[in-house]
Specification:
single chain, about 475 residues, mainly alpha, 20 helices
Length: about 475
């Protein structure tokens, strides 16, 4: 059995079952880069402060870089029998440098080491998620720009309600993902304080320079309380929350695509590269990607719950329970990244059946509100206009007509206020184009909305 760094206090070796139960190397090994970079910064600071000699500091930094290179080019394999990634890196350094390597852990605890490694990892992953969200937003905008005039029914209670455009519908999701970006930006800002130097819980008597270490690691500041520095996992919970919310948005979009792909809607058709078939029914074309996104959303919600419940009863400062943070947050990060990465090309290659959308809009009396508004503009009170229009809809259903096809004579039987200009007022194109209020579905307004997003979120992104 490998000797533990903390073994001096103990008379017996750790039971093998406890060793396996205690180990986190199987999942925290992905933080090897952050661990090495954190150690390089720490060793550099120790040399600068004359806590260890400058010569030893340089030797440690040089060998840590060698370990990094060896891991990345495959010349060194992570030992899965090690307790965790921190102990593996330190043990490898000590094997190569002997006593000099043992000096690295001066003025440092695994408690603040794991805290800084995890923060660095999550910060890096947030940047990757944000980049994917921006790509997703750009894809949705490209799709919206091609469908500014594509009329479709908008729904409430999953019933056809009022006419909108497909572009307007897509831009609703752009707004959701824009808020997700803001949440990730906020999470990044809140976690941008470096815990290294907090020690086990009470800092150290060595004259360390935490601000210098923070600058080397790209943190904007340092944590101001050592107890909080080692026991804070708010950044994991908040990131998991932001991921869960973003995944809910992806799930809602997925649900609509699933509906739109069905024969009952047939609003869109997925490219063959992003759909699957059935093992028994040869006619099937299943939207498995969106179904999986919808299903995986539940995992991210569960991971958030895991983190919240894990932390809710922990006293200060560090407790071993916190080791359970990584699998939850790592899984959420992996899940959202693969979901967005897969959905982007699926959306980009999706065929929009514009005529089917228009046909659905023409059959659902979704211009009824506009018919009522027509009467209001002729001088009637809205409630009276509402009642008259309701009677018209009932007459249309009786005669198997639509508001567009109902003869003007039938209109006039219900109200003499109607004239032939009603047909222009209630045409779906008019209904959409005249909704020019900020936030509305008219092509003119949606085009301005798209430009705002381009000028703010996508200004640094190549078209």
């Amino acid at each position: 059995m490998n000797e533990k760094m903390w073994q001096g206090r103990f008379q017996k070796e750790l039971d093998s079952r406890v060793n396996d139960f205690n180990s986190s190397i199987s999942f925290d090994c992905r933080m090897y880069k952050e661990d090495i970079l954190g150690s390089i910064a720490h060793a550099t600071m120790l040399g600068k402060q004359n806590i260890i000699s400058l010569e030893d500091s340089k030797l440690i930094v040089n060998e840590l870089n060698n370990i990094m290179n060896d891991l990345e080019n495959g010349n060194l394999q992570i030992d899965m029998q090690a307790e965790d990634i921190h102990m593996f890196i330190e043990a490898e350094l000590t094997k190569r440098l002997g006593v000099v390597g043992k000096r690295l852990h001066t003025a440092r605890s695994r408690n603040d080491q794991v805290a800084v490694d995890t923060k660095m990892y999550v910060k890096n992953q947030i940047n990757e998620i944000k980049a994917l969200l921006l790509d997703l937003i750009k894809t949705l905008i490209d799709l919206a720009e091609n469908n500014l005039d594509t009329v479709m029914p908008g729904y409430t209670h999953m019933q056809r309600a009022q006419p909108i455009t497909f572009a307007h519908h897509l831009m609703a999701y752009v707004e959701m993902f824009k808020r997700d970006l803001s949440r990730f930006n906020n999470a990044y800002e809140l976690m941008d304080s470096m815990p290294l130097g907090s020690g086990a819980l009470a800092t150290t008597t060595y004259n360390i320079d935490r601000e210098y270490t923070a600058s080397l690691l790209g943190f904007s500041n340092v944590t101001l309380n050592s107890l909080d520095g080692v026991s804070d996992r708010d950044f994991c919970m908040e990131t998991a929350s932001d991921i869960a919310i973003a995944m809910v948005h992806l799930s809602r979009l997925s649900e609509e695509i699933i509906l739109w792909c069905s024969w009952e809607f047939k609003f869109v058709e997925l490219d063959d590269a992003y759909a699957t078939g059935s093992s028994i029914m040869p006619q099937k074309k299943n939207p498995d990607i969106t179904e999986l996104v919808r299903g995986k959303t539940a995992r991210t919600i569960g991971n958030l719950n895991t983190l919240l419940v894990m932390m809710k009863g922990l006293p200060l400062a560090y407790n071993k329970d916190m080791q359970e943070d990584k699998q939850a947050i790592f899984d959420s990060i992996d899940t959202i990244k693969i979901c967005i990465s897969t959905m982007i090309p699926m959306l980009a290659t999706m065929k929009v059946n514009k005529q089917n959308m228009l046909n659905a809009g023409q059959k659902g009396f979704i211009n009824a509100t506009d018919c009522a508004d027509y009467l209001v503009k002729k001088g009637l009170a809205f409630r009276d206009a509402y009642k008259i229009t309701g009677s018209l809809v009932a007459k249309c259903i009786e005669l198997n007509e639509t508001l567009d096809s109902l003869p003007i004579e039938e209109y006039k039987k219900i109200s003499e206020v109607f004239d032939v200009d009603v047909y222009n007022a209630i045409s779906l194109n008019t209904c959409v184009k005249e909704r020019k209020v900020i936030g509305g579905p008219s092509p003119e307004v949606v085009k301005k909305h798209i430009q705002i997003i381009k000028d703010t979120l996508l200004k640094d992104k190549k078209e």
